[in-house]
Design goal:
This protein has one domain. It is globular. Helix content is 83%, strand content 0%. By secondary structure, it is mostly helical. The chain is built from seven helices and no strands.
C-alpha cells in the first residue's frame, strides 16, 4: 500500500477534536472540554494509523472499505429508525407538553441509552473509519463527506442546544407547565424534526455509497 494521503486526516481529526470538546461541555468544566478535545484529536490520529496499518495487508484495503460502508448503513439506518420512532411519540403528545416531558423522564428516558450508543458509534467509529478507508474512491468520498458534514453539524447543534435544554427540562418539577416552559418544549420537539431529517439523509447517503461500493467489487471480481 502506498503512503496514505493526509487529506482525510485534515478532515477527520478536526471533526473528532471538535466533537470531543463539545461532548465534554456536559461536564460543565473548561478542563473537561480541553481533555475532550485532546482525546478527540488523539483518537482521530489513531484511527488513521490503524486504518493505514490494516490496509498494508494484501487484499484488506478494499474489503475494509466496503465493509466499513456496510457497517455505516446498518448504524445509520438504525439510528434514523430510532429518531423517527422517538419523534412520532413526541408528535403524538405535543399538544400536551407535560406528556412530552414524561416521555423524556424515567423510565422511558427519551431513548437516551439508544441514542448515546448509536450516535457514539457514528461520531467515533463509523465516520472516521469510512472516510479514511474510502477517501481514494471519489464517488463514495463525496457522498461520505456530505453525510459527515451534515451529521457532525447536527451533533454540534445537539451538544450546544438540545442537550442543555433537556437537562433544563429535567429540573422542571412534574405537573402543569407555565407558558414559557411549554413553549420551549414545543420548540425543542419541532426543531428535533430537522435532526431526524438529517439522520434520514445520512442513512440514504450511506445506502447510496454502499451501492457504489458493491458495483466496484463486482467490477473487481469480473476483472
Amino acid at each position: 500500500m502506498k503512503s496514505p494521503s493526509n487529506r482525510p486526516t485534515f478532515f477527520v481529526v478536526p471533526a473528532t477534536t471538535i466533537i470531543g470538546a463539545l461532548s465534554s461541555t456536559i461536564a460543565g468544566s473548561a478542563v473537561a472540554i480541553v481533555i475532550g478535545a485532546l482525546a478527540g484529536l488523539i483518537w482521530g490520529l489513531v484511527v488513521g494509523r490503524i486504518v493505514y496499518w490494516l490496509g498494508r495487508h494484501k487484499g484488506w484495503r478494499e474489503m475494509l472499505a466496503v465493509r466499513s460502508v456496510q457497517l455505516g448503513v446498518l448504524i445509520a439506518t438504525t439510528l434514523f429508525g430510532g429518531s423517527l420512532f422517538a419523534m412520532m411519540q413526541y408528535a403524538f403528545v405535543l399538544s400536551t407538553p407535560e406528556a412530552v416531558l414524561a416521555l423524556m423522564r424515567r423510565p422511558l428516558g427519551g431513548g437516551f441509552t439508544f441514542f448515546v450508543v448509536f450516535n457514539s458509534l457514528m461520531e467515533w467509529l463509523v465516520f472516521p473509519a469510512v472516510l479514511y478507508l474510502n477517501w481514494h474512491h471519489s464517488a463514495r468520498r463525496i457522498q461520505l463527506i456530505v453525510g459527515s458534514v451534515l451529521y457532525y453539524l447536527s451533533r454540534a447543534w445537539t451538544y450546544l442546544y438540545f442537550v442543555p435544554r433537556v437537562f433544563a427540562f429535567m429540573d422542571v418539577p412534574a405537573g402543569p407547565l407555565n407558558a414559557d416552559v411549554a413553549s420551549r418544549v414545543v420548540e425543542w420537539v419541532n426543531l428535533s424534526w430537522i435532526r431526524a431529517a438529517i439522520d434520514g439523509v445520512v442513512a440514504i447517503l450511506f445506502v447510496s455509497a454502499s451501492n457504489r461500493a458493491g458495483v466496484t467489487c463486482e467490477r473487481g471480481i469480473g476483472a
